[in-house]
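Hey, resending since the last one bounced:
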Amino acid sequence: MVAWGALFGAASFGLNFLGQRSARSDAKNARAEELAFLKKKYEEYDLPLYGMTEDRMRADRDHLIDTINLKRENEIEAAAFTDKNNLRAWGQSLKIRDFQIRQNKRLFDKSEELFGAALSLNQESAALAKQQTMLAQRETEQSYAFQNEEQIISSIMKKGELDAKGQAGRSAAKQGQSLLAEVGRNQAIMTESLVSANRSTRMQLMDISRQHRAADTKAYANRMLKPEDPPMPLKPLKTPVSKYMLPREFIDADFGPEPIMGIPTTQVPSSMSVLASAASSGLSMFANNYQGTNRFDYGGTTTNHTDKFGSFTEWTYDPN
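The structure tokens again:
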């Protein structure tokens, strides 16, 4: 029974050993393929990508600088055009101001000429009106003088007629008194009329003087004020230009660390570790099928080893 168990354990050990060696070979192949892929990825993708990323970042920075410089140049040209246009408008404003000054001076001279002509016309009109009024007054006085002379002559003629008739006494005295009374009444009427005419003439002369002053006042009201020079138009200020800040220079931190070929994720075990794993599996299977003393626990030794692939345990069988 023990021989069959040992034989079965040995067979299991051999099968597991062969399986572990096959797995180790597959793992080595996978490791080699992975290392080849990582190397190819590192050389053909990671390093070129890192270089292209740096080139792209530098190209983007150069393009941004060119864009900022172009925008600044365009703004400078626009500001220069605006300044030139503003200066032209300012020069035109000065010409318009000079024209307005000359035009206002011509209008003022015209107004002064019309004002002087109005005063002269008012003076002539007032003088002519006064002359006409005084002429009418003299004609009135002459008319009354002629009427007075006619009445005096008429009274003398009537007195002569009375004397020629030879009337005497009371009747003649009454007729003489009546004639004198009539002459006196007529003279009193003419005197009152002459006084009234003189009064009317004075009123007319006063009204002419008032109208003269009113006409002069109206002419003065229509007189243009002496023009003053308008204020000078403000000289345009220079158009401000914005200040631009260029992007800073790159530093190493902007690009990050250079790529490193990746560490393989599949760990390849060593040959001794494969052997130890197979022995452990065989012993476990033998222990599950045989209940008795485990000679392997007493007839062998284990040793821990470490190589470039990792740590493993080596078991050595000792029949003694």
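The chain is about 75% helix and 5% strand.

Sorry for the duplicate.
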